[in-house]
Predict the 3D structure of the following.
Amino acid sequence: MTIFVVDMRFERIIEGKDHLWAVRDMAKPKNELALLFDTWNDMEYLMQFFIDNFSDLKDRFHIERISDAIEDTLDDAEQLERLILDIPFTDNLDELFKPLGTMDMSVRELAREKARNWDRSGHASWLRVYAIRLEENVFVITGGAIKLTRTMQERPHTKEQLDKLNSCRQFLISNGVFDADSFIDLRKEDI
Amino acid sequence: MGTRAVEFLESHQSGEQSTFASDAQWRRENASWLKRSRSVALAIINFMQENNLTRNDVAERLKVSPQYVSKILSGKVNFSFKTIAEIEERLGVDCFQAAACV
């Protein structure tokens, strides 16, 4: 479900740089990226998350100890944080973010994209940062998730992130950031 | 002068500064003791899973409030030796060993 928002606020992630922004819900204390990393560093939140999603963890990643999953998440969050803030990615985000689905590969602007720690050793990273690519090396982060399933549509917490991506994209289109005549409906693909 | 997209984002700013970089800096500067605090929390989480215990069960055993257990489990507590010793005695979890192994 795409929620149509009349106003949306943004925050620049690194002072003096125009390339990375995050959505800020003014009812929350921080922007989406800062909140995301707060939750990924909150072990009690992570414990409850992995208890609630234990079957996905076990079936897809073959991990049965909650503490192992938490440890992996903390390590991965630290590495992803560095990828976002440190060079070379901070100056070349097109290397860090990849299109979310095949339909996003065909749009040149306002594509929905995901970042993760692509080179993680051991199992693939389950941490995702989601963003809209406005143009070359300019991204707006809408949120993120721990993705333990193949598609985002399979679980409410990842489906919610998909809705946030679509809402942000719709807001940007309706405000003329992108030519509406070229609009492609990206909401029908399983990703 | 920014591009059209950047100009749009600038005209829709929240008016507040992002805390992401400063939060990350805090985590880096405090990484050394945070790792030890996290190891203690991980040892307790292991104990909880192995014994099928809830946060309230642990609070009862430690004779503290469930809110205090939440604090311990957050992985952001600068524990005193006294607190560590009490957790070890009441839960039978080797916290010193866990913290030393990082």
